[in-house]
C-alpha cells in the first residue's frame, strides 16, 4: 500500500525545486540596487542558475526510485496497473504516471520510445529493455535504481518464480543475455 504522506512529500519536494529554479532565473534577470558601498552589477554579468536543473533532475530520479520501492513485494499480475498487482510495463507506467511522465503501457512499445543511451552512461530512473524469456521480441522492462553499467540494479515486476515487484541486477545471466538497451525518458 502506498504511503500517502510520502507521495505528497515527494511531489511537494519536486515542485519546490522547480519553483526555486524558476525564481533563481527570474532573480538573475532583475538585479537589485546595490547596498551602500557595494558595486553595481550589470545584467550582462549575472549568469542564470544552472545547478537547479541538475538538482531538479536528481531529485526527480531519486523520487522515482523511492516511489517505485514503496511497491516492493506487490504481486505480479498479468495486465496489472495498480498497487494491487503489476505486470512489468504496468509497474513502469504507474510509477512514471505518478510524476506526470507519459510512457507506453506495453513493453513492446519501448522498441521505438525514448532516447537510447549507452549502458555505461545509464542513470537512476532510466528504463532497461529486455527480450522476452520465451520469444525473440521485447518482453520485459525495469527502472534503474543503482546505475553501474552492465552491473546496474533495477526495480521491476517479475513474472519469474518470485512473481512480485523486486530489485534485480543486470549482471544476472538471465538478464544479461536478454538485455537490449537502456532508454532515457527524463
From TrEMBL:
Keywords: Hydrolase, Protease, Thiol protease. The keyword Hydrolase applies. Pfam families: NLPC_P60 (PF00877). InterPro entries: NLP_P60_dom (IPR000064), Papain-like_cys_pep_sf (IPR038765), Peptidase_C40 (IPR051202). Residues 58-186 form the NlpC/P60 domain. It comes from Algoriphagus aquatilis. PANTHER family: MUREIN DD-ENDOPEPTIDASE MEPH-RELATED. The lineage of its organism: Bacteria, Pseudomonadati, Bacteroidota, Cytophagia, Cytophagales. This is C40 family peptidase. It comes from the Bacteria. SUPFAM superfamilies: Cysteine proteinases (SSF54001). Belongs to the peptidase C40 family.
